[in-house]
Specification:
Blueprint: H1 6-33, H2 41-68, H3 75-99, H4 114-135
Helix pairs in contact: 1-2, 2-3, 3-4
Length: about 140
C-alpha cells in the first residue's frame, strides 16, 4: 500500500473536491450550447478549452502529487514536483475563462498573462518530478 504524507493526503482530498467545480463548468458549457447563455464563438472556444484543461490538469496533478511521494525530493523541490501541475490547473483554465469574460468579447483581455505563468508551473512541475523519479 502506498504511504502518503499528511500533506499529500490532504492535497489529494482537496483537489478531488474541486471536481465539483469542474462539473459545474460542464453544466455552464451545456447552457451556452443550448443558447441559454449568450457567448461569441471566441468565448465558446475559450470556455471549452478552459474546461478541458481543468479536467486533464487536475487528474495529472493528482498523479504528480502521488508520484512525488516516491522521490527523494525535499523542501521546495518536493513542493514543486507535487504541486506545480496543480498550480497550472488553476492558472491555465483561469486564463481561458477569465480572459474571455465580458459581453461580446472576441479577443482575450489582459488576463491572458495567466497562460505563460501556468505553462511555466506545468513545465517546472513535470520536469522536477521526472528528475526526482529518475534520481531516487
Amino acid at each position: 500500500m502506498l504511504e502518503l504524507s499528511d500533506g499529500a493526503r490532504i492535497t489529494a482530498a482537496i483537489v478531488l473536491l474541486t471536481l465539483v467545480g469542474i462539473e459545474s463548468g460542464g453544466f455552464f458549457l451545456l447552457r451556452i450550447h443550448a443558447g441559454k447563455v449568450p457567448a461569441t464563438d471566441f468565448q465558446k472556444a475559450f470556455y471549452r478549452a478552459g474546461h478541458a484543461h481543468a479536467g486533464v490538469l487536475v487528474i495529472l496533478g493528482l498523479l504528480c502529487t502521488l508520484l512525488a511521494e516516491a522521490t527523494g525530493l525535499r523542501g521546495f523541490w518536493h513542493w514543486l514536483a507535487a504541486t506545480g501541475v496543480l498550480i497550472a490547473a488553476i492558472l491555465l483554465p483561469g486564463g481561458f475563462f477569465l480572459s474571455a469574460m465580458g459581453e461580446g468579447r472576441t479577443t482575450p483581455n489582459g488576463l491572458k498573462v495567466l497562460f505563460p505563468a501556468g505553462a511555466a508551473f506545468l513545465g517546472a512541475g513535470v520536469v522536477t518530478l521526472a528528475i526526482g523519479l529518475l534520481t531516487s
